[in-house]
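A quick aside before the break. I want you to see a complete sequence-to-structure record at least once, exactly as it would be stored in a machine-readable document. Don't worry about memorizing anything.
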Amino acid sequence: MNLFQSSFQLQNIRALALDLDGTILHTDASLGIYTKETLRLCIEKGITLIFCTGRSPEGAEAYRAAIGASGPMVFYNGACVVDVPAGEVLQTTLLEKEVVLDCLSLVRKENLHFQVYTPDNRLYYERDRSEARAYEKRTGVHGTVVDIEHLFIAPHRGTPHGSYYPGVIKAMVIAPPDRLSLVECFLDERYGPAVYHTRSHDTYLEILSPAVSKGKALARALELRGLTKEQTLAFGDGENDLPLLDVAACLVAPENADPRLKERACQVVPSCDEEGPARFIRQYVLKTET
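That is the input. The structure line, written in tokens, reads:
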């Protein structure tokens, strides 16, 4: 028996919480035609679509515009809730600058790529490296090379009254998985639960405030929209999507998902490249296919 059919009442679902990369996007970060048409049909049927992504609003905008979704959504792995396309920031939680500076010392020593998003949604790199160019190509977001330490010790263009930044939305290390493990060990030993870190991709380690998670931000987005957990179905593929399980009726994962997520998902569907999540939505939510 289909686990989803046996456990949940699909007629109660009024919202879809959607991770982007590795879930509704192909591996190459493109949005499939079938998925785009499916999500547009959801909107026509009155189903609310809420992005829950590690991307910035700018990095997700092309996909939002393609399907026509709007309203409060979750960005930066939960560090921000933004009403799009209006651009109104409804909630922001910053990572303290002291953590950023500690990470900066480590990545400089280990020669790793390091970048931050500041409270004004700007992307800064420590150095111009191949990882930066690959990230820009994947996300469409272009950064600026700067001595990141200076963001916190000198007045900076764009900050209130020309002041320094009090912290960042998130910091990122981009490196091979084994090198990310080194950074994770450093953070765990130095900060324990006082820092939240998660992998949004095999080579992306995101470092955020401990008050941040996709789940907490989704709860806020649902509250703002007048929706409940019982009305929400989540879709995700990564470690960073695990918190969605706490604030959605259940979570559907594509075959390419992290094993820990697939283990807890109510249903595993074909991979993102096969547009498995969209096919599931067509069959079980929209009921337009069998």
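Two observations worth writing down. The chain has ten helices and 16 strands. The first strand starts at residue 15 and ends at 18. We'll return to this after the break.
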